[in-house]
Structure formats: C-alpha cells, structure tokens
Amino acid sequence: MSHQPTTLFDKVWDAHVIRKIEDGPDVFLIDRHFIHEVTSPVAFLGLETRGIDVLFPERTFATADHNTPTINQHLPVADPLSANQLKALETNSAKYGISHWGLGNPKNGIVHVVGPENGITQPGMTIVCGDSHTSTHGAFGAIAFGIGTSEVEMVLSSQCIMQPKPKKMRINVNGVLGKAVTPKDVTLFIIAQLTTAGATGYFVEYAGDVFENMSMEGRMTVCNMSIEMGARGGMIAPDETTFNYIKGKEKAPKGDAWDQALAYWKTLQTDAAAQFDKEYSFDAADIEPMITYGTNPGMGMGISKSIPKATDLEGGVATYAKSLKYMGFEESEPMIGKKVDYVFIGSCTNGRIEDFRAFASIIKGRKKADHVTAWIVPGSHIVEAQIREEGIYDILTEAGFQLRQPGCSACLAMNDDKIPAGKYAVSTSNRNFEGRQGPGSRTLLASPLVAAAAAVTGVVTDPRELL
Amino acid sequence: MAYDKFTKLTSSAVPLPIENVDTDQIIPARFLKATERKGFGDNLFRDWRYNNDETPKQDFVLNNPIYTGKILVGGKNFGSGSSREHAAWAIYDYGFRCVVSSFFADIFKGNAINVGILPVQVSEPFLEQIFLAIEADPKAELTVDLEAQTISIVATGATESFAINGYKKHNLLNGFDDIDYLQAMKEEIKAFASAKAY
Ligand code: SF4
To answer: Are the Cβ atoms of A151 and B183 closer than 8 angstroms?
Structure first.
C-alpha cells in the first residue's frame, strides 16, 4: 500500500468506490439517501416501470418539506397537487419500507435540518438527496451532494451513484470575524469572490481557523451554499465540535460502535502534504455583513458598499444590466436605506436554532416595522421546540412577529409562501434568482442579523448599528 | 433502454444568448408538483415566455416562430442552481435533443445526459460564431455528430470538437442509462455494501 498524502475528500471518496470505469465515472456506494416529496415520485414510478425494487430501504430516509404549508399543518393540504405529492411520498415509503417523517410527525422538517439533528448525518459518509443543498451535510466531513431524479431512482435501485471524481479545491479563511459577521456572510463573501461558476467541477474543503472555531450550525450554513459557486459540494474536517454535536443523537452510534466510529472519524483529515487542484485564501478581517443586490448569489457585497459598476466587471455586461433592471436597482447606489417589504428567516441555510437566536438578539426590545411582512419559519419541529424552550418565542411575539411551522417555505415558494411581484424580500435562504421566491419577487440574500435589522427598521440596515 | 439513441443531429437552433441561465428560469418551482414526467415542455422558461395574464411575451425567443429546431444554444454557465431534473425534462419535452453552451453547471450536465439530451460544451469564440450564424440566418443549421464528437456550423463549415467521456458517449449512442449498468452489477454492490461499516 502506498502512503501518498491524501485529502479528506480523497479518503472518503476512495473508501466508497466499488468500480472504476475506464474513461467513465466511478461507481460508488451511498451510505445515506434522503428523499422528499418533489423529486422522488417520478423515481419511484421509474422503479415500477422497470419492475425493480429498492435495494437497501433502511439507508433511505423520507421527509416532507418542499411543498408543505407553514400554517395549519393539522388541516388537509389545500393545494391538490401538493397533497398528491405528499401522498405519493407516504405511499411509496410504506410500499418499499422506507422510514418516513411526514407532515405532523414530530421529527418532520427540512431534509438538511432533520438529517443532522437526528444523527443520521455522520463523518466519512457519502450522502445524496434530490436537492442541490445536500452539500449542507459536508459540514460533518461527509461527501454530500445534490442529485437529479434519475439518480434518485439509481440510488433507490442500487444504492450507488456513477460520477467522475471531481477536482479538489481548498478555501482557507483565517483570522477573526468582525462584529455581526456570521457564517452566512463568510459564504456570501466567498461566492462573491469566486462567482457562481468559480468552483464548477470541484469539491471544496473549507479550512482555517474561522471554520475550526465555527459551530456545527455555522459550518452547515457554509457548506450549504457551496453549490452556489458551482461546486459539487463542500466539506469540513470533523473535530471535537462535530463529535460533541453527534454524540447522543437518536441515530448516532452508541457504546462500542461509538468508540469505533470515533476512532475512524479522527482519521478523516487532509494530510499536511496533500495537494489541491486549486486553493484560495481569504482574510476574515476583510468580511463585512453581506447582502446581495442582483439575481444570483455571486452578486453580493459588503452591506456598507455601493452596487458595482458594469464597467468594473470582467464580462457579462448585458446580463448584469438585465439583472439590475429586474431588481429595480442602479449601479453605484448604496443598498443601505432601501425599503424592504418582506423578511424571511428560515430554510436549510439559516433555519436552525442559532439563526433564531441571532435574529432574536436584534429584535429583542424592538418592534417589527409596520409595513414589513415577516415569515419566521423554523427548519424543523425540533428547532421549533427549541425556539419555545429558550424563550425566543416570547421575544418574537412581543416584537410583533408570528412563528410559523417548519418547511422550505419561501426558499422556493412552492407552497403559499410567495413574495408578490416587484416586492423586496430580505431572505436568509440561498438563492436570489429571478422569481425564486415567487414570480417577479426580488430577493436580497443576507444573514439572520441583517434580516432582523431590516425587519425592525423596514429598510436595509447595517446590523452593527443595532447590536 | 431508457431513451432514444443519439447519434447525429442536423438542425436549426434556438439562440438564448444569456449567461447564468438557472434552472429556476428553465422551469419555475411552482411547476414541480407533478408526480409523473409529463407535460413539462409547456412550462419551459415559463416566466420569460408568458406574461402574468398568460399571454406570450413577444420578445422572448421561444415565441418567435422564425426560430425552431432541436438544438438550444445558451450563454455561459447554463443550468446553474437547483438540481431539479425537471429542467432537463422540460427541455427534452419541448423538443430539444441538444444544448450548446460555452460552460455548463455540473448537475445540469449530468441530468441532461441522464434524460437523453446531449450537452455540447464549445469554446467562447465558437459559441460567438454560432450566435452570429443564427443572427445572419435564423434557419442556419448546426450538425452535432456524437460518434465523431464534433459540432459544425453547416453554412460556414466551421467545426469544433467537444469532450464527452467514453462511458456516457456509449450510453447515449445506444440509448442505455446508468440504471441498466448498475442492475447488471448488483451482486458486486451487495458484497461491497455488506463489508462496509454503515
Ligand atoms: S430550504 Fe430551500 S434549498 Fe433547502 S431543501 Fe428546502 S427548497 Fe431546498
């Protein structure tokens, strides 16, 4: 056996390869497969058409999230198409013996929130789901990425995926983050530097003391957005923070199995001499609270800055003009002071307990701006319970906010939570594409602190002024 | 056999010279509610194609009858964003069999091949030439030859080769898909999986 220095990514990938196809992809085993109601029905239909079975039903987990209402979840789902998809998930799961956390189940929530919080997500695993933000699970030192429906069918039927091995990139961020600079700002900053295609073809490892000092929630926020710079996924080497988070969770290994797992997890580090195909380094001190002004997540800037001029761009000027026109913004304008109509806090990017703590830290003792509609949507029932236990619920209510029920909600606006055309929403989700939050909606991506500052002032506001 | 074979295609093309066309534009989320793979072509580029009152937007290329064909030519970074395979279904269902761009987002590229659409990645200058050729003559034809891995502009004869891995090429040429391949190696998979910790 050779002892070539390898990266964390190599270690996990290589341990799962069953067969290498010459001039083709690797066939590799998937440890955990998450499914939800939107991208799985056609995959199950495919199994039926081909007359094949689910190979390892106990390695797939189903939860309903994309299409679920965030109020009155005890009532029947009004939209017949949504109801139909939820029903299909339930029926298919029952038919093939897949564990299903449907609407109303105390463990229900957004797939990338419930996986980690129940201990399903563990270091060294390969994890896929028919949702591009599956990269979230990389925060645990897993290889996790989004797949299409054909691949969902592939994993159901064979527990395998066929992919060529991506190239490797490392992104280092060192130093101390400034006041009100959160993991969301770190990721929006990185994407703004790399652009939305800057990491296409790569799998990213995040390294440096900024990530080492980050909580699991923060690491999940960063890995979640890896896809927004085109990367297949992102990962962070597991450490004590990771192990402490997993320990005791329902599906975490127990007893001897825990000790064994831990010994293995501790080997999941990039060797000092390992090589990456590309490497970037950033200084934490250069990162401010961020906000996006355009129609892709790479169009972000420090909140105190002005919208860049087209002449400062490297290309794509026509697309840039189209984007600003859609947003109703002009080049060189500041973002501070822009009127905000909606605030959305939630999604698999920022729908965890720390995000609501951050939000509460600003709204406490203040009031929601009258003209702002706020959707406060926990990522799961477990998060919702924490919000109540920690007294955040009371802070929200006193400030004039209402807590909704878990789901993807306005992140992709498949349910009723749609931002109306032309309205501006400060959103803690991950995508600001045209119409993402409803036809004609205008999204400003930001951290929970920036969202809170907008919610109480009614305009884009630097959260550093309120802390 | 999962879809029609792809060998050689000569067709006029529909130009979409916009960069970063994301899958939310290709098929907005509100059209993802089906439980069958049918009818997605009607909602391809829905919000670019129709006004709120369902009337067609005259200035959008799919509403311009001059442009037809089985090839869609998009700007750089085509298919970014959401992993929804519905985007590829919509493109296929509308009648396209090939998408040309100077750069594709990863997941979209994989999804496209999985549903039988050939993604052809060309150089920026060649993409420019294609757009110019279509601008000069909306009926200008392109030939995509998968066996030879080339794409040419018929009128000018300009040709460029494109890359595709041998395995995927074989699949497209024969109309096979990955599931066919994996079914054939099920025993090997089971043995590997049972030997692993998880
Ligand atoms: S919250 Fe948004 S990104 Fe996350 S799983 Fe739901 S739809 Fe996907």
So the answer is: no
Helix (H, G, I), strand (E, B) or coil at A142: coil
Residue A106, token pair as written in the block:
């105390």
Nearest to A125 among B166, B183, B198 (CB): B198
Q: Is A405 on the interface with B (CB under 8 A)?
A: no
pLDDT in tens, B5-36: 899 999 999 999 999 999 999 999 888 888 88
Cβ pair A460, A454 in contact under 8 A: yes
Separation of alpha carbons A452 and A340, rounded Å: 11
pLDDT tens digits, B34-92: 888 888 999 999 999 999 899 999 999 999 999 999 999 999 999 998 888 899 999 99
* A185 token code pair: 């700002």
**Pair A245, A216: CB distance under 8 Å:** yes
CB contact under 8 A, A162 and B22: no
Please report the pLDDT score of residue A70 as a whole number. Answer: 94
With a 6 Å cutoff on the Cβ, whether A411 touches ligand 1 is yes
Q: Which of A66, A150, A158 sits opposite B186 (nearest CB)?
A: A158
For residue B157, the tally of other CB atoms under 10 A from its CB is 7
> Tokens 């017949």 label which residue?
A80
Q: With H, G, I as helix, E, B as strand and everything else as coil, classify residue B30.
A: helix
How much distance in Å is there from the Cα of A35 to the middle of ligand 1? 12
Of A439, A445, A443, nearest to A421 by C-alpha is: A439
Which residue is listed with tokens 């050939």? B118
Return the structure tokens found at A350.
């920022």
